[in-house]
Design goal:
This protein has helices spanning about 5-10, 15-20, 30-35, 35-45, 80-90, 110-115, 175-190, 220-230, 240-250, 255-270, 300-305, 310-320, 340-345, 350-365, 395-405, 410-420, 460-465, 470-485, 485-490, and strands at about 10-15, 45-50, 95-100, 130, 150, 160, 195-200, 275-280, 295, 330, 370, 490-495, 500-510, 510-520, 525, 535-540, 550, 555, 560-565. The protein is of the alpha/beta class. Bound molecules: 1-deoxynojirimycin and calcium ion.
């Protein structure tokens, strides 16, 4: 069997609302994306993943779906979507869409029916329970703040929502729900969509006993931990991770998820060549390697604030060492839920140089890389000062709760809420040194403010003119990747003897070897790379291609990225 396309692909996440606005309403749209396909083709990506494009009240920017087989009118029409698909395919760009299975919008007709009466045929499509002593059925929290239950006044029962109250959880125990979702899946597959990024799939089931969690922590503690945590994600800090598990353990990764994946995989496998990429870091959801998800994200890589050589090596050992069968890894350093890579993994002084190091890292580790739109020009977090501008409900919740429960001063609460929320990494794509960064026409008001650093070279047009830019560097790495098969398909082996100031690894495929060496420090460092043959520079941030190097005498310049063929 030939190697599946997605193992070799570089994927690029588009956040539709913020990518390109074609009609001046301040909201990105599908025609805007179509206009930029040439850019993506030049950049050299093989596939795009669109965050939700479905009709939605936009309480969670499309992750609250009101119709699984439609297109958000602000984004365009189903015909626009078909055009996007055809135009992408014409450029050999695959298209993945987001599939939000855990919950729908509370405006979805299914939920409207479900809540209409206790004996509506769709009642059991969602998770309804009677209250307890006038309150919710148990003490579970929503991961977005507040109780996980909302009372429906009409019928007097409570519905469950792991996320916002406007995102009621579907009842995945109900075969009708599964069948309806698989119909939607087939609708898009029939149209030619190449696969799905599965949203929040670890949360489709809850502990059926509804037993209370036994954590002493409440909403205020949750907020405090989130304000302290690196990115609001508990990956790195063991103490926080344990506290989160105690709070949410009954609401995530319950038995039954594997079965859903096997079913879904069955649907996907009715079609050729499609991909299931799960929003989870749990490798066990790759099943035997051939029966559940094709890919899961290496989220720990973006959940850490310490992207040191030691940390990366340990991460790779653990992840690569636990892959079942033929399963393949998937690496990313950013998405619409996390702080921007540039800055996040910087040191405040050399962020631009480090952004190149990290771009090279994610594009040369073993696995399918996923880039987040704007990271290729070094877009950074933009912290909104004014709570009136917040669009992410997490920020609004954090702002209010920080004042009410933590007694924070409004200014501090606003600053904390801006850091915690996700608006910061969702600001409009910076295309040009032009009004509104070229995202939307002059005079239009973008749905989120544009980061003013577009005027300082953080934009596509300026960087296309600058051979030293992050954008041109990213293109070079992508070109090199396509040229050197080991970088795409090769095995991974450590080659730095455990150094603290740089990381080096060899990717090998079919007798060919490519060395990647990354200096993560501002000093020049001696790297004695563990290969025995001469090196020839394929790409370096500091030297010309073709230069020959002796493996025992490699001196890496500050923050140098070196990719060299071996032998
Ligand atoms: C994960 C998505 O990436 C995030 O943006 C969303 O808020 C939640 N799932 C709920 O759908
Ligand atoms: Ca628009």
């Amino acid at each position: 069997m030939s190697r599946e396309w997605w193992r070799d692909a570089v994927l690029y996440q588009i956040y539709p609302r913020s990518f390109a606005d074609s009609n001046g309403d301040g909201v990105g749209d599908l025609p805007g994306i179509i206009d930029r396909l040439d850019y993506l083709q030049d950049l050299g990506v093989d596939g795009i993943w669109l965050s939700p494009h479905y009709p939605s009240p936009q309480v969670d920017v499309g992750y609250d779906v009101a119709d699984y087989t439609g297109v958000e009118p602000e984004y365009g029409t189903l015909d626009d979507f078909r055009t996007l698909l055809a135009e992408a395919h014409r450029r050999r760009i695959r298209v993945l869409i987001d599939l939000v299975v855990n919950h729908s919008s509370d405006r979805h007709p299914w939920f409207v029916e479900s809540r209409s009466s206790r004996n509506n045929p769709r009642r059991d499509w969602y998770v309804w329970h009677p209250g307890r002593n006038g309150g919710p059925p148990n003490n579970w929290l929503s991961t977005f703040g507040g109780p996980a239950w909302t009372r429906d006044d009409g019928t007097g029962e409570w519905y469950y929502h792991f996320f916002f109250a406007e995102q009621p959880d579907l009842n995945w125990h109900n075969p009708e729900v599964r069948a309806a979702m698989y119909d939607a899946v087939r609708f898009w597959l029939d149209m030619g969509v190449d696969g799905f990024r599965l949203d929040a799939i670890g949360t489709v089931f809850e502990d059926p006993t509804l037993a209370d969690h036994d954590s002493p922590l409440g909403e205020a503690d949750l907020l405090r931990m989130r304000l302290e945590g690196p990115a609001g994600r508990p990956h790195d800090d063991k103490r926080i991770a344990a506290a989160f598990l105690r709070l949410f353990g009954r609401q995530i990764d319950q038995p039954g998820v594997h079965e859903v994946f096997r079913e879904l995989r069955g649907v996907i496998d009715e079609y050729d060549d499609r991909l299931l990429l799960g929003e989870t870091s749990r490798i066990e959801y790759q099943g035997t390697g051939d029966d559940e998800l094709h890919l899961v994200f290496n989220f720990p890589l973006l959940g850490t604030d310490r992207l040191t050589p030691e940390w990366i090596r340990a991460n790779q050992r653990l992840r690569l060492g636990s892959l079942p069968g033929d399963a393949w890894p998937c690496n990313t350093l950013g998405n619409h839920d996390t702080p921007r890579m540039t800055g996040r993994f910087g040191d405040g002084e050399h962020d631009a140089a480090l952004a190149k190091v990290h771009t090279a890292l994610v594009l040369t580790l073993k696995g399918t890389p996923v880039l987040y739109n704007g990271d290729e020009v070094g877009m950074t977090d933009f912290l909104l000062q004014d709570p009136a501008l917040f669009r992410d409900g997490i920020s609004t919740w954090a702002y209010r709760t920080a004042i009410a429960l933590l007694g924070m001063a409004p200014g501090d609460a606003a600053a904390g809420a801006a850091r915690l929320g996700r608006d910061k990494c969702r600001t409009p794509m910076q295309w040009a040194p032009a009004p509104n960064a070229g995202f939307t026409p002059p005079g239009a008001v973008p749905w989120l403010p544009v980061n003013p650093n577009f005027a300082d070279g953080v934009n596509v047009a300026d960087q296309e003119r600058d051979p030293g830019s992050l954008l041109e560097f990213t293109r070079r790495v992508l070109t090199t990747r396509r040229r050197l098969r080991p970088l795409v398909a090769g095995e991974y082996r450590e080659a730095d003897g455990g150094a603290a100031d740089h990381i080096a690894y060899v990717r090998s495929f079919d007798g060919e070897e490519v060395l990647v060496a990354l200096n993560t420090t501002a000093a020049s460092v001696a790297a004695r790379v563990a290969v025995s043959r001469q090196l020839t520079v394929a790409l370096s941030s500091h030297r010309a291609p073709g230069e020959r190097l002796h493996p025992q005498e490699v001196r890496l310049a500050p923050f140098e990225v070196l990719v060299a063929t071996v032998g």
